[in-house]
Amino acid sequence: MDFGKLVERVKMICTSPQTEWTVIEKEQTSLQELYMGYILILAAIGPVAGFLKMSVFGIHVPLMGTYRPGLGAGIGGMVFRYIMTLAGVYLVALIVNMLAPSFGGKKDDMQALKTVAYAYTAAWVAGIALLVPWAGWLILLAGSVYSVYLLYLGLPVTMKCPPEKAVGYTAVSIIVAIILSFVISFVVGGITGGVGMMGGRSSSHMNLQGKGGFDKDSPGGKLEEWTKKMEVATKDMEKAQKSGDSTAQSEAMTKMIASAMGSDGKIETLAPERIKTFLPDVLAGRQRSDVSAERSGAVGFQFSTAKASYKDSDGNTLKAEITDMGLAKGVAALASWAGVEKTNVTENGFEKTYKKGKEMVHEQWDNRTRSGEYSTIISNRYSVKISGKAADIDTLKKAADSLNLAGLAALKDEGVTK
């Protein structure tokens, strides 16, 4: 097992996919070599991260502390999800191979397995985001979307389908992958706490002008637009790598990251002191007891977060948190037009993720402790979260609405350089 070769493949398929797919198409390998030297390793990232999040680090339950499932149950869930993921790769490869003739391609079971395995790379690597609190699903979504793009680039090279049929070939293959993903998530019991993407709305209008395609404002149309931007960014990256100019390579990488995240350029997030001004002295009749703000970043990403606690006369605490997601605003937009939704209702409470107007909303409530969380994303850039003990979820909603959300939304283009 050559880890150096594995790391190089991950790097190249993510940063220079068009060139790398040509290399992959010519490689001679076997099912055993592909599984042992690549799939088994990368496919383990998500299950292991999920296990660490649940059974080692635990989940913070407001007012109750940290909850950790039993170690045995955690290991069992991790192993089962891992096995289902490995099986899923093989099943999707079978479907890709079977569909090849329908889209003018050439059937080849080994090429199909290589295509699916390497296209999954971005989604597998993004699995580490399971360790990131609530907003980690944005990174997971970005990895999944980028894997769709990798598949779109790979099919014409490895399966020999005409480039103009790659979109349809990719779409049908992804539908199968999504169905398998839902089956796996259902069987495992939602270890990742991820959200489903089957709530996307389809357009009732067809594009009757020029070449076939999706309606411009439909999820499919947005995906096509995103794909075109990624093609441009990928070509720029390959050109920069060939030039040997480190400055050009750095700029091209920044552009590719921004494009992958659904953004049009660089974003400097709000300064800590400025974002802190959106947390008032009094919230929902409770006095602010403490407040803090910070900005951090790496490899082109920046995040600014302000937090405050508010206590009532009985000592009950509400926590408010505002985050400027920077480049991740593009991923929030992708989630918005994809119609990401989730609803889980039990006898003890509920958890919901839905779209309210143009904004994404997340609600969580526990009837036993009379506590919960209400989060919303403003202008696809700012995450606003209110959590703690209250009379009901509406109290948390009203607390969020009492913040200067309009003022926050007015700063959606602040620090943006296209």
What does this entry show, briefly?
This protein has 418 residues and is an alpha+beta fold.
Written overview of the protein:
The protein is an alpha+beta fold. The protein has 3 domains: 3-188, no CATH class; 219-260; 267-417, no CATH class. The protein contains 15 helices and 13 strands. It has helices spanning 3-15, 17-26, 31-42, 45-57, 71-99, 109-119, 121-125, 136-158, 166-188, 219-243, 246-260, 272-276, 329-338, 393-401, 405-409; strands at residues 59-61, 65-67, 266-267, 282-283, 286-298, 301-311, 317-324, 342-346, 349-356, 359-366, 371-378, 382-389, 416-417. The strands form 3 sheets. The protein has a 9-stranded antiparallel beta sheet with strand order 4-5-6-7-12-11-10-9-8, with helices on both faces. It has a two-stranded antiparallel ribbon with strand order 1-2. Helix 1 (3-15) crosses helix 2, helix 4 (45-57) packs antiparallel against helix 5 and helix 5 crosses helix 6. It is globular, with a radius of gyration of 23 Å. It starts with a helix and ends with a strand. The relative contact order is 0.09.
